[in-house]
Design a protein that fits this description.
Layout (H helix, E strand, L loop, with lengths): L1 H22 L23 H16 L4 H14 L7 H11 L4 H4 L12 H4 L2 H6 L4 H12 L6 H17 L7 H9 L6 H9 L7 H8 L11 H9 L5 H9 L5 H12 L8 H6 L7
């Protein structure tokens, strides 16, 4: 358990830094900025980090995803800080859960057939770190964590893909590039997310424009137009956290979420997170 938890926290640190870093670029251009241009005031995180904190807490307490406990942890954090950028569907669900409603009843009704947005994927990388030694278990637990808010298969597929990618990255000997993506694909259920992830295998490592055009970069805020791009970006930058985040944010789109996903994955493989970035990110409670 201690090794699992340490990896989950390592991923959480990367996710939270990525989230706060990406959030900066809704007001500045990544194509014109450098590290010297980054704000000196604390970088604030969003719901991406806050929901990931709940996942780590539940894993610490139970050693697996206990769904009702996780749903209530999500709701408690939402009530405490509802201004963290929660999407409308998630906010409605969590408000109702906080007053005693059952997520099993609410989640399938969001957007008509359940949410396929990228929220389940944005928070799940630490779970992959926790189950780093069992990719199949990482996939299964990711699905359990996702369905609480994302009843649509694509929302769940995005979470599965990110969790497996994080688990894979957490192993000392892991593939990179196309081989990394191919191994993740073995666990992703059929659908649009899986199809775009298959497309990502053939996108050259240096062709950001093609990646954004074919895969998306979160502009639609859906799992299928966010996760394939993030895994493509992470796959070619597993050894360098800073390079991974700068490359990812240049794809624009849903910058806090794309950087949170990539940060949560790459932190498990890279040597370190830049100390300056860690110091600039607002403090987060760790288990």
């Amino acid at each position: 358990m201690p090794d699992r938890l340490a990896k989950a926290i390592q991923s959480l640190e990367g996710l939270s830094v990525g989230d706060a870093f990406g959030e900066l670029f809704f007001s500045i251009s990544p194509h014109k900025a450098s590290s010297a241009d980054l704000p000196t005031q604390p970088w604030r995180g969003t719901d991406d980090t806050h929901m990931a904190l709940s996942i780590v807490e539940v894993l610490h307490e139970y050693g697996h995803i206990e769904q009702d406990a996780l749903a209530h942890a999500f709701a408690k954090r939402y009530q405490a800080e509802p201004y963290r950028g929660y999407a409308g569907g998630a906010a409605r669900l969590l408000r109702q859960v906080a007053t005693g409603a059952d997520w099993r009843t609410i989640a399938p009704t969001l957007f008509g057939s359940g949410s396929y947005r990228n929220g389940a994927a944005m928070r799940v990388a630490p779970l992959g770190g926790f189950f780093y030694d069992d990719l199949q278990r990482a996939a299964q637990e990711a699905q359990l964590s996702a369905v609480i808010t994302h009843a649509h298969p694509e929302g769940q597929a995005g979470a599965i893909a990110v969790a497996v990618a994080a688990a894979l990255a957490a192993n000392t000997s892991h593939p990179v590039g196309r081989d990394f993506l191919r191994e993740v694909l073995e666990f992703v259920p059929r659908g649009v997310t899986q199809e775009r992830l298959q497309l990502a295998v053939d996108v050259p490592s240096n062709d950001l424009d093609q990646a954004v055009r074919l895969l998306g970069s979160g502009r639609d805020v859906s799992a299928q137009d966010t996760v394939p791009f993030c895994l493509w970006s992470a796959a070619y930058h597993l050894g360098n956290f800073e390079e991974a985040l700068w490359w990812t944010v240049k794809g624009m789109g849903d910058c806090d979420t794309t950087c949170a996903i990539v940060g949560g994955i790459v932190a498990l493989a890279a040597n370190s997170i830049p100390p300056y970035w860690l110091n600039q990110r607002e403090p987060i409670p760790v288990t």
